[in-house]
Design a protein that fits this description.
The protein is α/β, with parallel strands linked by helices. About 35% of the residues lie in helices and about 25% in strands. Helix 5 crosses helix 9 and helix 6 packs antiparallel against helix 7 (about 225-235). The longest helix is centred in the C-terminal third of the chain and has 15 residues, at about 255-265. The structure holds MU-OXO-diiron. MU-OXO-diiron binds near residues 76, 78, 144, 163 and 214.
Length: about 375
């Protein structure tokens, strides 16, 4: 596959994977992207997951018509991209490996050697000439690991962006970009909004026509759309109007309360009310919805003097990713000593700019006229 006549795609699609990074469901598989830049010297951008070494090496050989590449550029050392560095070094013994000081420290940890005879160590802003293509390395620490760097090819106006602008899903499956890119972003990079903002500022100074990420499709049209989404996500801004209700329910009573709130909000004209049962639906999907909307309602039971386990996990997923700038409403349930609201509030104590609704709904076992009136009041407040 050609990105342009001198930049070729040599990545692979993975439909064997069960959990990406050991954690995320990827029903449409995963792509590990890799690219070849052909010039007087040739460069390969990153390797692929350990299970796809043969296919990747074959793709490189085909792209280069059998000749060996001169460089392997390592933008990111997470094994979904780095696992075949050793294989590359063995297959192409004269090729150099390009990375920064942190890259080579990690290569040594993963491979037992940092390939001293092959090393080309680059600094932030440094360039490597392939002939007409001059590659400039733009460090992007913590997007998603400390050694990450982007690579800008000014001649082609291509920015290689490591994990950034990636998504879940293999490239041979048609699906909406934003949905799986958002789930990927908040799941994997969400904690590092400030670092993403920093690299977006560096990228703004570049003339970019094509973004080549390490996952998901190559982006070459309407780049402002993707850049704006990344700006919203990384600044913890609100992307969509509406509200997300996340609940757990043991016997269905908390679920009824969540559904009644949804009904009331819709009757009052709320443009979108997304609802998820945290015990049964994909947790990463719920995390992305919490960041997507400006308002969140948490409905859960008191459990072992704490809150129900899936809600605890969900809140932890949010707070460790820097959840902020949001309004939160609470529906608590408890038969003899409801205390979920107090516990939930304490879990957001260190979060920035969280406003709790004045109305807390307390369900004592099952909905009654008092709790229904509280739900009405909460709906009014959230629509205010
Ligand atoms: Fe796709 Fe952070 O690895």
């Amino acid at each position: 596959m050609f990105i342009r006549d001198d930049i070729l795609y040599v990545g692979v699609n993975d439909h064997q994977i069960d959990l990406f990074e050991g954690l995320y469901d990827v029903p449409n598989g995963m792509a590990y992207n890799s690219y070849v830049i052909k010039d007087e010297k040739t460069a390969v951008m990153d390797s692929v997951d350990q299970n796809f070494g043969d296919e990747w090496i074959a793709n490189i050989k085909q792209a280069l018509g059998g000749s060996a590449p001169d460089y392997l550029i390592v933008q990111h050392m997470e094994p979904d991209h780095s696992a075949n560095i050793g294989r590359f070094a063995a297959e192409f013994p004269n090729a150099k490996i390009v990375g920064n000081a942190k890259t080579f420290a990690m290569i040594k940890r993963f491979f037992g050697t940092d390939y001293p005879d092959k090393q080309v160590v680059v600094k932030d802003g440094e360039t490597l000439s392939l002939g007409s293509h001059e590659l400039k390395f733009v460090f992007a620490p913590m997007v998603h690991w400390p050694e990450v760097m982007f690579t800008y090819d000014a001649a082609a106006k291509v920015l290689f962006t490591a994990d950034a602008f990636g998504k879940f899903g293999a490239l041979d499956v048609e699906e909406d970009w934003a949905c799986e890119a958002r789930r990927y972003y908040f799941g994997i990079v969400g904690k590092y909004g400030m670092q993403v903002q920093n690299v977006l500022k560096k990228a703004a100074a570049l003339d970019i026509q094509t973004i080549c990420p390490l996952h998901g499709p190559v982006l070459s049209e309407n780049l402002d759309y993707y850049l704006e989404l990344y700006n919203t996500w990384s600044s913890y801004g609100v992307e969509s109007e509406g509200l997300f209700i996340a609940y757990t329910s043991v016997y269905g009573n908390t679920k009824k309360a969540a559904e009644l709130l949804k009904e009331k909000l819709e009757a009052k004209g709320c443009p979108k009310v997304a609802v998820a049962d945290l015990a049964r639906e994909d947790m990463a999907e719920s995390v992305e919805d919490a960041f997507r909307y400006g308002k969140l309602v948490l409905a859960t039971t008191t459990y072992n003097a704490d809150i129900f386990p899936f809600m605890r996990e969900f809140i932890n997923d949010l707070t460790e990713r820097g959840y902020q700038n949001r309004t939160i409403g609470i529906i608590e349930n408890g038969t003899w000593a409801p205390m979920a609201a107090k516990v939930i509030k304490s879990k957001f104590e260190k979060s920035k700019n969280i406003t709790f609704a004045n109305t807390t709904v307390t369900v004592n076992s099952a909905l009654d006229s008092t709790s229904e009136a509280q739900i009405e009041a909460l709906a009014d407040e959230l629509m205010g």
